[in-house]
Amino acid sequence: MKKVEAIIKPFKLDDVREALGEIGISGMTVSEVKGFGRQKGHTELYRGAEYVVDFLPKVKLELVVNDADVESCIEAINRSAKTGKIGDGKIFVTTVERVIRIRTGEENEEAI
Predict the structure, then answer these.
(1) pTM greater than 0.90
(2) Which among 108, 90, 86 is positioned nearest to 99, based on CA atoms?
(3) Is residue 4 predicted with pLDDT exceeding 70?
(4) Diameter of the chain by CA atoms?
């Protein structure tokens, strides 16, 4: 099992969720986060005063999938979140050792 974490632009969330649904992945956790990478921040003008926006709003998706579904999951996220501009985000894949569904006690693949 793998955990796929994706940091994407907020307006791409619906496209990514739809793309994942098309390949049969329905369960995910979504968090609103802030951060920056190469995109850094930017300056904005508000009521005549200039200020720096250091952290940009992003959305973080977390999914745990079977090993067989990892590549199609990555492809769906990459295809649907890409704008071709700086700040499109990143995808991280890590190994998950154990999953337990609290309600039933099911473990691992049965718990996903």
Answers:
(1) no
(2) 108
(3) yes
(4) 58
